[in-house]
Amino acid sequence: MAQVKLVSIISRENTPLFIGIYPGEGETTTQLEYDYSSLAYMALDYLGQQQNENAGTVSLLYVHKLAVYGMLTNTANKIVIGCEAQEGSESIEQFAKQVLKVLVAYKSNPFYDETETSIDSQGFRKEMAKVVDKWNKGEA
After folding, report:
1. InterPro entries attached here (predicted)?
2. Rounded to whole angstroms, how far apart are CA atoms 29 and 46?
3. Strands (E), 16-65
4. Sequence ranges of the domains in the chain
């Protein structure tokens, strides 16, 4: 199973709402944050062209040793997932749906502010980390 390294939620205006970096053993977060944040932005144009108006589909872009998947939600947010590029890795679509569930639960909160420019909720970060951890352990 491919290890998830990056989960990013991008707004309809192409601004990052959330960037989660999930380093493996021996990796430092500092360099990965820069590398993966840049990668998420580079992937936006490609993924946008591939998806056009096909909300809910997952597109793939390989960059160096990372497979970058993107999904356009019904609300025009983009979910970008980066994981280790492996031949024959199973579909990441199930993982993308789990990420979407966390996002929908967050936005369904009656206190959610539609004008916020980033997702700073510790609860959201913890839920996302749980989803990634379960996936990386093969429990999802």
Report:
1. Longin-like_dom_sf, Sedlin
2. 26
3. 16-21, 58-63
4. 4-136
